[in-house]
Amino acid sequence: MSSTLAGRHVRTQTSSIIATTVCFLVVALILTGLMAHVVVTMTRSANEIDDARATRAARAAIGAFVARLSGTTTDNAIWDDAYSAASSPTAAAWAYENWGKTSEDYALYDGAVVIGPDRSSIVSAYAKGKPFEPSAFFGEGFYRQIRVAADPARAPVVNFIKTESGIALLASQAIQPYEATTELPKLSTLTFYKEFSPEVLDALSNEHELEGLHLETKPRPEFLNTPITDMKGAVIGYLVWPSKAPGSTVFQQVTPYVAAAVAILALFLIGVLMVGASEARRLRQLAQAALFEASHDSLSGLLNRHGLLNLLEEFESSGSSPPRLYLVDLDGFKAVNDAWGHAVGDDLIRLVSNALTACHPEVVAAARLGGDEFALVHVGSATCEDMEKTILALFAEPFKIDGRTIEVGASIGAAAGDADIEPLELLRRADMALYRAKANGRGQAIEYDPELDEERQRVAELEGLLKGAIGSGAIEAVFQPLVSATTGAVTGLEALARWRTSTGNISPEIFIPLAERCGLIDALGVHMLRTSIEHARSWPDLALSVNVSPIQLCNPEFAAEVISVLQELDFDPKRLTLEITEGVLMTNPDQARRSIDQLKRVGIKFALDDFGCGYASIGALRQFGFDRMKIDRSLVSALDEGANGADVLRATISLATALQIPVTAEGIENSRQAAILREAGCDQLQGYLIGRPMSARDISSKLEEESAA
Q1: Please, where are the H alpha helices in 537-684?
Q2: Which terminus of the chain, N or C, has fewer Cβ atoms within 10 Å?
Q3: Secondary structure element (H or E) that encloses residue 577, with its range
């Protein structure tokens, strides 16, 4: 089965390389086509941009030509001397001297015509300094323009007109004074014209960068063209000039380089094909090694999680006997790493891997799923109990590594496969069983049972109920009195959490650890602190003690939350004592110290709870500066169980007295215990003998009774 899977992976890898090479070639060809398209587009665009510029320049040239002649006409027609001369007997001579003779070699116009007030008689008509007949030269269009221009106006009438020799520009305007003081009579008309001569075209070409500009009667498709229209809008000719085509010019210059680039690209693509073929051959040779690395753990050589799931899928698809899966988690492996270093830990992993692989002939595969978690796949007739005993027997004797004797244990979770069980589900079931085995203690083996899922479901439902109970305030605070050992007076109260439901009460020993596991302990702690303080405000003479989870104290925001609640409820911090267990001193001492110091600065006191049942040292008591020690109830109950119970208790209280730490004894149930504790120096008592946990209302009633007495 493994070889079939490997072959499938080999074919997949090879096909992937071939497909990648083909895709690369296709992409390269597409990019080449795109670049060719870009070059062609840029060439065409450059040509079109320059052609558009040239067309605008041609229109500007015509406009400049019109403007010059129009301005010249206005300068001469609106002239007091010309107006006076036009109506005098010497009008013809005056027109010749000022305009007709000048037309012989004047750059601004080629001819000048003066038409009388009747708009038909010729007063003066000279072209190039010689008399000429306007109607014969210009045709009937000349007199149409005269009739339009005869009326006084500030701007001349300007039109292109077809002549005997080509095309000319006519500008006509009534001869008038610069400023008219009375209504003017019919006026004579002055007309200047300028032909589109080669000299004019050359000047326009130079001025507007239109090389090769010339006049044609018809458009030339291979050239750029701008039409010239007469007064009726009819086209009478075309300005024509060749396109510079700068894009094509540049393209011709870079053509050798483009050809070289195409040749290089072709060689590159050939090289890619050759490299792709070579890589495909190499992958066929390396595929088995790559497959092994992908499905095996590099340290132990066993299957990894991916390889294990693939193997289980092969069992499922082959229809063979379903396997049994065992998950093995080492007990005490972290201590080995901490004591001897990771190198020794790695050697231990290798030894355990070899031992598990060879532990039983029916083990068909072994896997390493994590740091110290392994899996065994078992197919055969051996029972689950026999397999578990065989596996646990591997850890009965210590391992020897470089002269070191290293002891580790194991916890086992087992799950039986089935034709309908997916590999991931089988792995989940084994993991559920392993979780229960670890919870039961070291060296345990548990086989999956549906009850584990049912229990998990119950826990999940309980988590939801707990979250709702915290939000709705269903978890209440009750208070157990703390009394002076000498006077018997109530000096303080310890707040305890109680959860009452419609189906019964849920013990704090159940819901508090649950809150710690599911991340609700911070919300529960703030709720209990707030609720307790709200009630304690009614008892201003009593101190208040509230239990704090180690998880709360390790929260960097815990101190700020407590101070915020105190400020919000206006509660004196000196009345509040937070009780913590010694576990927090071992799990995260640095953060615990920061939180304790921050809260002690505002006046809050701290008590070490359950002293005597764990590992708290004298150094820890002094280092953290506890304000009170609470003796665990196990030391108090020991007074009734053995002769040395009182001696141990007295020694514990003497230790606290030497450190100048007051002592509270909890769990006092009879008068004998109370008497021994008073004699030993305990200053505060707590327990059922003193008073059971009571509601806030009962506490108020009790205090009122004591006050009345």
Answers
A1: 550-553, 558-569, 583-587, 589-600, 618-624, 633-637, 645-658, 671-680
A2: C
A3: strand 576-580
